[in-house]
Amino acid sequence: MLDNVTINQLRAFVAVCDQGSFSGAARKLARAQSAISHAIKALESAFDVELFERNTRKAQLTAAGRSLLPDARAVISRTEEMKNRAGAIAKAGVPQVSVAVDAYFPRAHLIDCLRTLQEECPTAAINLRITTMQGGEKLVLEKVCALAVTINDVPEVNPQAIERHWLREEEMVTACAPNHPLASTPKPIPADEFGRHPQIVVTDNQPGAEKTQQGVAGKRQWLVNDLGAKRDLLKAGLGWGHLPRHLVVEDLAGGQLVELERRAWHIRSLTFVVSQRRGHDLSACEGRLVELLGKG
Questions:
Q1: Which GO terms describe its molecular function (predicted)?
Q2: Residue-wise DSSP of the chain
Q3: Assessment of whether the complete model's pTM goes beyond 0.70
Q4: 33, 162: one domain
Q5: Same domain, 207 and 72
């Protein structure tokens, strides 16, 4: 039965192959030669195949043995990795990385950063929250998350308790559907003309959250609490709005959205910051994630 295979039996199998004899394997593993022979017989019984030729003085693999040897090495290697990881956990505990990331942040870049972090900190447990507006800093204030990636123009939740650090910038574009009236309006378009049409605006879904008016052209607003919903409404021709270029680059290239040129109305790049509680010392994994998020 394969359930009866042990790691020591696999080690004996590999040692015999590497040393070329049962006696050599016994010396390498500091075990009696009879114990090595017993391990090989038990392994052959479990696999129901012969691993070594029995009519030669030198340990010579059968065809089945040659086929199974790479698998045995792989199992031993994975076991060693597991032991090392368990040792690291026992020594330092499982690293926790809890981060809230604003929905406007480039998702592909976020995934690349998390993939790299997983490779470098394989034992880390990730708690990722996607938020809007002040939602991330509220999670930091409530100690649900240690870090929040938020937009600098969003009013601070509690400047006395939370500090911000610059992270990166993303270009914003103003867009609408090709069938929207603004798409056929002579360019550049003044701000008051934008104000005559509904603007799709992402708002905070947190009760009592302070709102930001950066980039808002007038009182005709449709409020949504989801960035994907805003993009869908724009593509449906129900309004116009500002979106990060990385989110709509394919829509612009494919003609589902058109970029609108503004007259005498500058929209700043989207500045992302990292928010953390004052006095909080970043762990090695948290610091590495912040470093990765700021690159590119």
A1: DNA-binding transcription factor activity; transcription cis-regulatory region binding
A2: -GGG--HHHHHHHHHHHHHSSHHHHHHHHT--HHHHHHHHHHHHHHHTS--B-SSSSS--B-HHHHHHHHHHHHHHHHHHHHHHHHHHHHHH---EEEEEEETTS-HHHHHHHHHHHHHHSTTPEEEEEEE-TTHHHHHHHTTS-SEEEEETTSPPS-TTTEEEEEEEEE-EEEEE-TTSGGGGSPSSEEHHHHTTSPEEEE---STTPPP--TT--SS-EEEES-HHHHHHHHHTTS-BEEEEHHHHHHHHHHTSSEE--EES-----EEEEEEEETTPPPPHHHHHHHHHHT--
A3: no
A4: no
A5: no
For 207-258, how does the pLDDT look when each residue is reduced to its tens digit (9 = 90+)?
Answer: 554 455 456 766 789 988 888 899 999 999 999 999 999 999 999 999 999 9
Q: What is the pLDDT of residue 231?
A: 94
Residue segments in the chain with a per-residue pLDDT below the cut of 50: 1, 209-210, 213
Range of the domain at 56: 2-92
